[in-house]
């Protein structure tokens, strides 16, 4: 489990096309400290498994399902990425419960710059709209954010200077894709309510 609090901005150092998958090598001195084979690291909000690591770099394989469902397929050598290790048991939950299982992708539609923050409007796939509510939580490229406004096909978030400086959201421009993960609790509630209706409760 992750919390959506990005630990560092990493960098893609190599991409290998494996046909129905891709192998990425990524640099991240913080997240590779103490890393072992089989560990999980979230890359732009996608939970990936460490295949190998050497120094401050690690390698991860990304299967076709993940490439199709997320924006990782658009990464190239030199791309900056948000990196986060799983939260430790007993640690503070700084953001919200994040699984690293991307539900879909959105697109940056607009940025409104203010003196101390920016409002960013992002497109929202129709099948995810019911999970996104005003003042609720959403994960954008691995960053836990609070929804400012929720529409039928878009939502807005407000980015503080820290988020702008320490994550890729500070440089995303209109037209850029972003990974979206909605609040998993909302999905469980929906499923439980549906099961209750089927049982006639």
From TrEMBL:
Domain of life assignment: Bacteria
Catalytic activity: 2 6,7-dimethyl-8-(1-D-ribityl)lumazine + H(+) = 5-amino-6-(D-ribitylamino)uracil + riboflavin
Pathway recorded for this protein: Cofactor biosynthesis; riboflavin biosynthesis; riboflavin from 2-hydroxy-3-oxobutyl phosphate and 5-amino-6-(D-ribitylamino)uracil: step 2/2
EC number per UniProt: 2.5.1.9
MF term (GO), any: riboflavin synthase activity
Pfam families: Lum_binding
Assembly, per entry: Homotrimer.
Full protein name: Riboflavin synthase
Originating species: Streptomyces misionensis
Lineage: Bacteria, Bacillati, Actinomycetota, Actinomycetes, Kitasatosporales
């Amino acid at each position: 489990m992750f919390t959506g609090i990005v630990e560092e901005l990493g960098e893609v150092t190599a991409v290998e096309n494996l046909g129905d998958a891709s192998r990425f090598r990524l640099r991240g001195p913080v997240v590779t400290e103490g890393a072992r084979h089989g560990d999980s690291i979230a890359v732009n909000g996608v939970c990936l498994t460490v295949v190998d690591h050497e120094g401050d770099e690690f390698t991860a394989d990304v299967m076709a399902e993940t490439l199709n469902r997320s924006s990782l397929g658009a990464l190239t050598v030199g791309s900056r990425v948000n990196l986060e290790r799983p939260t430790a048991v007993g640690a503070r939950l700084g953001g919200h419960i994040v699984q690293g299982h991307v539900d879909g992708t959105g697109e940056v539609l607009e940025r409104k710059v203010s003196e101390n923050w920016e409002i960013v409007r992002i497109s929202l796939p129709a099948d995810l709209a019911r999970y996104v509510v005003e003042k609720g939580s959403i994960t954008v490229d691995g960053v836990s954010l609070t929804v400012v406004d929720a529409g039928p096909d878009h939502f807005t978030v407000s980015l503080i200077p820290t988020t702008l400086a320490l994550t890729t959201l500070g440089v995303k421009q209109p037209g850029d894709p972003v990974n979206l993960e909605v609040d998993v609790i909302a999905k469980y509630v929906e499923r439980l309510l549906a099961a209750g209706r089927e049982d006639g409760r």
